[in-house]
Design brief:
Strand order of the largest sheet: 3-2-1-4-5-6-7
Radius of gyration: 23 Å
Distance between the termini: 31 Å
CATH topology of the largest domain: Rossmann fold
Helix content: 40-55%
Number of domains: 2
Structural class: alpha/beta
Number of strands: 14
CATH superfamily of the largest domain: 3-Deoxy-D-manno-octulosonic-acid transferase, N-terminal domain
CATH class of the largest domain: Alpha Beta
Largest sheet: 7 strands, parallel
Shape: globular
Length: 432
């Protein structure tokens, strides 16, 4: 590291130290995470030559697992980092033999500590994990960086554009970007990434998981009496609407079991209080009784990993972050298991997927809370039509799969180019 850069890093560490120390004192969970955040990962002896994947949280970790299947089939070993404990739990559950840890703080010293024992062969960043210190450390170590399923959302792109001159040098260190859409590819180029390093590979989330996750005996028994409506990745305000839908359906003789999966599991107590205040009997996934739930009761998924299987048990699904201005979450998950999906008007983060589904009449956007309530009741009143939309959606996604294979090819070509000496990102080599 150059003297000026070293001085800046030291100053940043000095400024951040009180904040980190306060977090360690006030939050026991952060205190437990601190060694890994500082770069002292649990897998320091993981060995060299692995592909290192980095995913932000649960959704990106699930997408990364799809790519891991393809990379492992090509003979690569891998390890992974995530920004959240919930994301790491996905790797621990689905890839128990693969080293995984929490990502280091994006500070040169923390990144160097994490990277030194690993000595990765290539680094893959899922979606928008553009961490400057990590990318710079990879460039110094000669480790090519590939962005997979790369996206720049309507919210993030304007922010990046304001600092385009600052992040341009970071982007030019990236060896290749596999963008989700033409718009994402165009945005990467506008921010300064050379055009010949960008390829449209699609969205990893469009490909179904290689293995279907089951409900497990307790959850299967709990949801054995239908119908079931599943509201996944919900935010504050959306659970209230779903509870109103349950009351409306009961008034029309269409009661159902409501499954709520808050986007943040630490909101479980809040959501449970809300449901009980509406006169509902509430059950937690972690404390299920040995009996089926009755229509009118509410189940809250208070752990990660069960949502995809819960969708499969549902008659209709609502995906959250769409009735409130968040931008939407993974609408593919219920569609992969053949369930009709509803979502609100705020779907900027998943716009391309929504366009694909709506072209065949498989997805349905509701403009507001009242419209969502009406759509849920309508779907329960006409289950055959709901099943038809669900199957149409599943077949639609089947026609658009292939992102995993295109991304695998991009990784192989990037490695071949860099390792043959044809030029890495710093030399402006092509990813095509």
């Amino acid at each position: 590291m150059r003297p000026l850069a070293h001085s800046i890093a030291a100053l940043a560490a000095l400024v951040a130290a009180p904040v980190v120390a306060a977090g360690a004192v006030l939050r026991p969970d952060f205190r437990r995470q601190l060694p890994e955040r500082l770069g002292f990962g649990r897998e320091r002896a993981a060995g060299s030559g692995r592909i290192w994947l980095h995913a932000s949280s649960v959704g990106e970790a699930k997408a990364a697992c799809r790519l891991l299947d393809a990379l492992e089939a090509s003979g690569f070993e891998a390890q992974a980092t995530t920004m959240t404990v919930a994301g790491r739990s996905i790797f621990e559950r689905d890839r128990p033999r693969m080293p995984s840890m929490l990502a280091p703080l994006d500070h040169p010293w923390c990144v160097a500590l994490a990277m030194q024992p690993a000595r990765p062969r290539l680094s893959i960043l899922i979606e928008t994990e553009l961490w400057p210190s990590w990318i710079a450390a990879c460039a110094r170590a000669g480790v090519p960086v590939v962005v997979a399923s790369g996206r720049l959302s309507d919210r993030s792109f304007p922010r990046y554009s304001k600092v385009a001159r600052l992040i341009g040098p970071t982007l030019r260190k990236i060896a290749a970007v596999g963008a989700r859409t033409e718009l994402d590819a165009e945005r990467f180029v506008r921010l300064g990434l050379p055009e010949d390093r960008v390829r449209i590979t699609g969205d990893l989330k469009l490909d179904p998981a290689s293995e279907k996750s089951g409900l497990g005996p307790a959850l299967e028994r709990a949801l054995s009496i239908g119908p079931v409506v599943v509201a996944g990745s919900t935010h504050r305000g959306e659970e209230e609407t779903c509870l109103r839908a349950l009351a409306a359906a009961e008034r029309q003789g269409q009661p159902f079991v409501l499954v709520l999966a808050p986007r943040q599991v630490d909101r479980t107590a809040e959501v449970a209080r809300l449901a009980r205040s509406r006169g509902r009997r509430v059950h937690l996934r972690s404390r299920l009784e040995d009996r089926p739930l009755a229509p009118g009761e509410v189940l809250i998924l208070d752990s990660y990993g069960d949502l995809a299987a819960a969708y499969a048990a549902g008659a209709v699904a609502f995906v959250g972050g769409t009735l409130v201005p968040v931008g939407g979450h993974n609408v593919c998950e219920p569609v992969h298991v053949g369930r009709p999906v509803l979502y609100g008007p705020h779907f900027a983060n998943v716009r391309k997927i929504v366009e694909i589904l709506e072209a065949d009449g498989a997805g349905r956007c509701v403009p507001n809370a009242d419209a969502l309530i009406a759509a849920i009741v309508e779907s329960l009143r006409d289950p055959e039509e709901a099943r038809r939309r669900g199957e149409t959606g599943r077949l639609t996604l089947e026609r658009h799969r292939g992102s995993v294979e295109r991304t695998r090819q991009l990784v192989l070509e990037t490695l071949a180019r860099v390792e043959s000496g044809a030029g890495g990102a710093a030399e402006g080599g092509s990813a095509r």
